[in-house]
Amino acid sequence: MPLGEEEIAVLRHSARIGDAMVRAMVATAAPGVPESHVYAAGMAEGYRNGSMPPSMHLWSGPDVIAAGIPSWGQRPEAPRVLAEGDVIYAEVFSNFGGRHAQSQVTITVGEVHEDFHRAGCVARAAYDAGLRALRPGRTFGDVVDAMHEPIDAADGWPFLIAVHSLNPGLSVGKGRGLFSTLNRSGSDGGSIP
Q: Angle at which helices 114-133 and 140-153 pack, to 10 degrees?
């Protein structure tokens, strides 16, 4: 789906707004701050920059695995208060001029377990491998295979590989992660039901 120069410029502007939203979220995230304040900081920055961002996905906790809009947006509960060692996972969306940008965000609150740093390095290696493979004449399967190489080398697994560049479509690779195989012990060594 080739884009013209003007469309590419609009898309890059939308992505810059998304980056500004993420920077505002990072600046707000700290122990004792409700996650709703982090959410509000990102959304306000999007609006301030002329975007009409849809609801972002945001979850937090010491070892959270979740996706979707925050539970306090759907249930009668107070927003979770961030604590030292938490991780915030978010999908930040920016819409500008009919072009949509999305950022997959992981924000650490204070010191986190070293596994998060290792996972970040592996994710970056997979991203870079995907960029190198994303060339004319290559299939989406070629990109997915290239991204799996550094993940496999680190004995990891992705939930799935997705390319959000076929505006407004989405290409999704073969999912290889099963949440049911995860160790379900809590960070304190206790069992998670």
A: 150
